[in-house]
């Protein structure tokens, strides 16, 4: 199940909410903004998270996920990789690669690619976005050579699994009050998902493993129950209350044990990470 935890982390910011799953007939609620400037990250930023799994009294470092920002004058390129540590590869090997190219002016994606290897599960997914026409072209299959082509007509702008994370970092969270929701549309796996992320609370001087004390804003997605999450599960996402707005910690119980991801390394931040 380690593969599921890495996959969960990559989509941590917008875990599918029970009250906003598939967008019916690809119809958006049209509440998500379709453009955003960038004030909170730079090309060259790289974040590394260690994923821990707890079963009983032990926390096991099972793998890691990295997020890196590249780009040129016109586009940002976001790259994320997820993997299990080699000592766990015999149990369940994970090697995941995600890449998103977005327009610098709007922060909307122009293309997205996903190549995943999770045990015996292999998946290739390539998406091209025409944001002005709200058209999506997707190649989806087990491998690049066997992927089938699909076309979808949407009615609003949309994001991919990576672009939505950086779009969120440029949302004006200072004006949020507890209970507010951030709406967003995300396209992947031949489906459009209408999502909500709920603002839960503000914490001053929260101590985070190996990171010291930080002021954080806490967000809680409403999780779909099933193989990974129980009906009682609550996922907490702790976002740094500074100009970087990066996740410092993500934690949640799962059907067996609990899982958390902790920021273990960061380079190239646009602003100093505020530590008490």
The residue fraction in helices comes out at: under 10%
Count of discrete alpha- or pi-helical segments spanning 4 or more residues: 2
The general outline is globular
Largest sheet: 14 strands, antiparallel
Structure, described:
It is a single chain. The longest helix has 9 residues, at 2-10. The chain has one domain (2-264). It has a 14-stranded antiparallel β-sheet, covered by helices on one side. It is built from two helices and 14 strands, in the order H-E-E-E-E-E-E-E-E-H-E-E-E-E-E-E. The protein is mostly beta strands and 276 residues long.
Helix and strand topology:
Blueprint: H1 2-10, E1 46-55, E2 58-71, E3 75-84, E4 94-103, E5 109-118, E6 121-130, E7 135-141, E8 148-153, H2 163-168, E9 181-188, E10 191-208, E11 212-220, E12 236-240, E13 247-253, E14 258-267
Antiparallel strand pairs: 1-2, 1-14, 2-3, 3-4, 4-5, 5-6, 6-7, 7-8, 9-10, 10-11, 11-12, 12-13, 13-14
Based on the model shown, name its key terms.
276 residues
Quick summary:
This protein has helices at 2-10, 163-168, and strands at 46-55, 58-71, 75-84, 94-103, 109-118, 121-130, 135-141, 148-153, 181-188, 191-208, 212-220, 236-240, 247-253, 258-267.
């Amino acid at each position: 199940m380690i593969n599921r935890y890495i996959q969960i982390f990559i989509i941590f910011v917008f875990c599918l909410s029970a009250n906003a799953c598939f967008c019916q007939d690809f119809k958006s609620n049209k509440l998500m903004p379709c453009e955003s400037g960038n004030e909170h990250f730079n090309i060259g930023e790289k974040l590394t998270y260690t994923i821990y799994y707890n079963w009983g009294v032990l926390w096991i470092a099972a793998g890691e996920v990295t997020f890196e920002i590249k780009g040129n004058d016109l586009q940002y390129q976001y790259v994320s990789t997820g993997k299990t540590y080699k000592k766990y590869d015999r149990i369940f090997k994970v090697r995941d690669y995600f890449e998103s190219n977005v327009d610098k002016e709007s922060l909307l994606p122009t293309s997205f690619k996903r190549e995943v290897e999770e045990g015996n599960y292999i998946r290739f997914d390539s998406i091209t976005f025409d944001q002005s026409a709200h058209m999506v072209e997707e190649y989806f299959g087990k491998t690049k050579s066997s992927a089938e082509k699909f076309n979808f007509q949407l009615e609003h702008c949309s994001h991919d699994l990576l672009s939505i994370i950086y779009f969120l970092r440029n949302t004006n969270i200072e004006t949020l009050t507890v209970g507010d929701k951030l709406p967003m549309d995300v396209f992947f796996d031949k489906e459009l998902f209408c999502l909500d992320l709920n603002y839960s609370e503000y914490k001053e001087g929260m101590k985070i493993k190996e990171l010291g004390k930080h002021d954080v804003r806490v967000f809680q997605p409403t999780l779909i129950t099933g193989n990974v999450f129980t009906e009682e599960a609550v996922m907490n996402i702790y976002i740094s209350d500074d100009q970087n707005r990066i996740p410092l910690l993500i934690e949640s119980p799962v059907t067996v044990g609990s899982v958390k991801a902790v920021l273990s390394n960061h380079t190239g931040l646009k602003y100093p990470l505020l530590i008490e």
